[in-house]
Amino acid sequence: MPPTNTVGMATSNTKVQRVNTELPLVVIRLAEDRDGAVISKLVSANVGLGQLLPRSSQEISRHVSRFLVASRDGTVLGCGELAPLTSTLSEVRSLVVSAAARGEGIGTALLSALVESARQQGVPRLCAFTHVPDPFVALGFSILPHTWLPEKIMTDCQECEWFRRCAQYAVVLELDCDQGNPRGRTR
Length: 187
Known about the structure:
Layout: E1 15-16, E2 26-30, H1 36-47, H2 57-62, E3 67-72, E4 75-84, E5 90-97, H3 106-120, E6 125-130, H4 134-138, E7 142-144, H5 150-155, E8 169-174
Parallel strand pairs: 5-6
Antiparallel strand pairs: 1-2, 2-3, 3-4, 4-5, 6-8, 7-8
């Protein structure tokens, strides 16, 4: 049974109930300025593992207000950013959970909260580039060719050392749809 996600809004009192009830609940909240260093550390640790693209601590600090963090007992365990690429497309970036907290459903809960935040902001389309597409697909994202996201290519990909050799999957979720249809827009 997957973790039960009770996230409705990204606020400081939003909680995620996990299957293993022996551990304290995880809180998903908007990141604050004080979280910038921890977010940077999480991202940097996973760049070295080949799971994330590098980001400077200055860039993360500039955009810390776009991040959600997952914490337990005040300790940040994971993060993810909702980054606008255009007025009609935002990207899930730097979605990562600390190695010690993986396998607890925290990444899926963060992803669900980012999708909900995008919906609340009226974002019509959400994308991500990921090495592990399964959690995204489980939430209704579709895998598609990178070239179908020219906004991302123009914004970030052309400067990336992996441009034209990228091993990540491009995924997209259409949000400008009937809220009752979790898979996105029907055509």
